[in-house]
Design brief:
alpha+beta; 712 residues; 12 helices; 44 strands
């Protein structure tokens, strides 16, 4: 298949979806004098550098250049670092993460498994001697030490490079200190495994023992000379890693933190600040009960600060639990049908707001991101805003329609905004609410703007985005491409420019593209998210059907030619749609789908459908490979293209192979596209580009559309 250097698919792949060159990962100094951040040198440069912006005058200077530090050598990643980047969906290179001391004077980071620090005021960086490969280095709050993980051991060295030593060494190959286990990083949003004390004299350190976790093998059939990679994968209903927590002093003292790990095995959150004792959030295996515990670091004893229970499940939220500077507990809770912010025992927000994350906590207020709640006067489809919340009320900090987030300290806020009418995102520096600087972005302009309408469809008011070809005159009905993710933790209907670019490219090929965020997707209400419990397959498919049929009354949709495409959960949804509702969907592109729910991980799968031994019928009812549509002789056969990366360690290729076998046994037409060496992400430029082109070719063939030599 031919490619064009300036085609949208090639530019979309080369720029990592037009994210390269955009500033990210902001840290504001507590005195508000400077902001540290990451940014690559251009819209096609994957190597991120560490930068500092002086807030007084707005000047930017580079603090660490990965190419200079490596002397021009190629970057080499350890298996552990590649796994960390896969969990965080990191496709960039260079300095992809950093940590600072409390004053934001010293930063540390790893490059090619080597340890580096940067003095942010001086703008100088240097390497410290350390055993390799180094993972997740973090300075102590006082800037005197750097802790890091190497070969499963938690180590510490002086910030000047002396007295490097192991504080905790693994007792076996399956034990690590200071790293997050697979499901914490993949599903809980906890990527860390150690936390400094505010006094810099000791650390909280997670000890992970993967021995109980079943071993799987990930191989590359295209490279038969290579041995398969062994991975420990906690599939639904099977044992998890054993996670314990220790207080480890720089003097070598070691005290285990005690809590009822049999009842609450999941260590979901850890917070340690000068405002109070260390806080833990621990969850039961069924995720219907959790405790917030305060820890005595001298004895390891813990006491309950707050307990939560929910008959469906308890969600985890970024930024909480934590202490306010005055020592009050800050948390987010689903209470009274709404997702509320609570400080102490008092809820500070009502049903008009749906809290998404806590961004910062000060003496004066709590900074949060939130979308409109069920009782909001204006639904604000796809919008996420930043609010200041205190006992006097709620003030919205972001004003223009869009998707906003923020970082704050010392009276300075970095407000990051993506809007429907402007490509990419803009990062503005605000002091006392007034703009003082804009952080430069080198991201490429996509060269097109989506023709998108944000609306709601059906009786349940399903959030939808409808995209038409940019040159469409509106005189004939168009074949339809449903382009959802459609499941938990994946909002696609957003009031922003770039999230709709790929959908617009498909629209420009002659489709009306519909993106529908049905029940189970985030951003609306707790009941909306939790209505998929035990019946996730039927609910998400029905909402796609309802949205499509409702939108046909207002848009020129040809309901006799409807296709669906998706990746990950979206691939699962696409397969279900073609099998369960062939009366509605006429073709499906199924990317990296979960087809056998028993093969996906514990924390995710058990949240929605319980334990497979306790609810085998629920697993069968929600698994694609057990779908009655496979053997229904009356139902029409719909063509299906199945795409899967053979190196995927999250949704393993067994899912697609089992689906293909079931389709073959049922005599159903389908195509399988295996991607050698590709994981759950597709960062390779040629792969990502040609995947779009091959999908388009399949959709045209399957719907009986005229095939053109080249996409528009």
């Amino acid at each position: 298949m031919t490619t064009e250097a300036d085609s949208f698919p090639r530019r979309h792949a080369r720029t990592l979806r037009f994210t390269l060159g955009a500033p990210r990962s902001f840290t504001v100094a507590p005195d508000g004098s400077r902001v540290a951040f990451l940014r690559s040198g251009s819209g096609t440069d994957r190597a991120q550098s560490l930068w500092v912006l002086d807030t007084e005058g707005g000047e930017e200077r580079m603090a660490a250049d990965p190419r200079a530090l490596l002397g021009g050598a190629l970057e080499h990643l350890s298996a552990e670092e590649r796994a960390r980047r896969e969990r965080s969906r990191e496709g960039g290179a260079g300095i992809v993460g950093y940590a600072t001391d409390a004053a934001v004077e010293l930063a540390s980071f790893a490059l090619s498994g080597r340890l580096f620090t940067a003095e942010l005021r001086a703008g100088t960086a240097r390497e410290l001697p350390a055993p390799q490969p180094v993972i997740d280095p973090r300075p102590s709050p006082d800037g005197r030490y750097v802790a890091y993980v190497a070969r499963g051991a938690l180590r510490v060295t002086g910030a000047e490079g002396g007295a490097d030593r192991a504080l905790a060494a693994p007792e076996s190959e399956q034990v690590t200190y200071g790293l997050a286990e697979f499901i914490a990083a993949e599903e809980m949003g906890r990527s860390r495994g150690f936390w400094w004390a505010p006094e810099s004299d000791r650390l909280l350190v997670a000890r992970v023992d993967d021995t109980p976790v079943r071993q799987w093998w990930i191989s590359d059939p295209a490279r038969p000379e290579q041995q398969p990679s062994a991975v420990r994968y906690p599939a639904a209903g099977t044992p998890n890693a054993e996670v314990r927590l220790f207080v480890i002093g720089l003097d070598g003292t070691r005290t285990e933190v005690a809590w009822d790990r049999a009842r609450y095995p999941y260590l979901a959150r850890v917070h340690w600040s000068a405002a109070g004792a260390p806080l833990l959030l621990v969850q039961s295996r069924d995720q219907r009960a959790s405790l917030i515990l305060a820890v005595d670091p001298d004895t390891g004893a813990s006491r309950m600060v707050h307990a939560d229970e929910d008959p469906t499940w308890l969600e985890l939220f970024p930024g909480v639990p934590c202490w306010s500077p005055s020592g009050q507990l800050v948390r987010v809770a689903d209470e009274g049908g709404a997702r509320r912010l609570a400080v102490g025992e008092r809820p500070l927000t009502g049903p008009q707001l749906h809290i998404r994350a806590v961004l910062d906590v000060s003496d004066d207020d709590v900074l949060v991101s939130a979308s409109a709640g069920e009782e909001a006067a204006d639904p604000e489809i796809g919008e996420v805003h930043v609010y200041r919340v205190n006992e006097l009320g709620v003030e919205r900090l972001s004003q223009e329609p869009g998707v906003h987030s923020a970082v704050r300290a010392g009276g300075v806020t970095v407000l990051v905004s993506a809007t429907p009418d402007r490509p990419g995102s803009r990062a503005r520096v605000l002091r006392d609410g007034k703009p003082t600087a804009t952080v430069r972005s080198y991201a490429e302009n996509p060269g097109m703007s989506p023709r998108v309408t944000l609306t709601q469809g059906g009786a349940r008011r399903i959030p939808c985005a409808v995209l038409m070809p940019r040159d469409y005159a509106g005189d004939t009905p168009l074949p339809v491409l449903m382009d959802p993710y459609g499941g938990p933790h994946g909002q696609r209907v957003l009031a922003a420019h770039n999230p709709h670019l790929t959908s617009q490219w498909f629209a420009d090929q002659g489709f009306a593209v519909v993106v529908a965020d049905g029940r189970g997707t985030p951003g609306r209400s707790p009941a909306w998210e939790k209505s998929v419990r035990d019946d996730i397959a039927a609910v998400v498919v029905q909402d796609q059907v309802d949205a499509l049929q409702a939108l046909a009354a207002d848009f020129p949709l040809d309901l006799d030619r409807v296709a669906v495409r998706g990746w990950s959960f979206g691939g699962y949804l696409a397969a279900l749609a073609a099998l369960r509702r062939p009366d509605v969907f006429h073709a499906a592109v199924v990317g990296a789908p979960v087809t056998d729910l028993r093969l996906y991980d514990t924390h995710y799968q058990e949240r929605y459908v319980g334990l497979p031994d306790e609810q085998p019928d629920v697993y069968r009812r929600n698994s694609v490979i057990d779908d009655t549509g496979l053997v229904d002789a009356v139902a029409p056969h719909r063509p299906m293209m199945i795409i899967h990366g053979l190196a995927d360690d999250n949704v393993v290729v067994a899912h697609s192979l089992r689906l293909s076998s079931a389709l073959l046994a049922a005599g159903r037409p389908h195509e399988v596209l295996p991607l050698s060496g590709v994981t759950h992400m597709t960062p390779q430029e040629e792969v990502a580009e040609n995947l779009l082109r091959l999908q388009l070719d399949f959709l045209r063939r399957s719907l009986g559309l005229a095939n053109e030599d080249e996409p528009r």
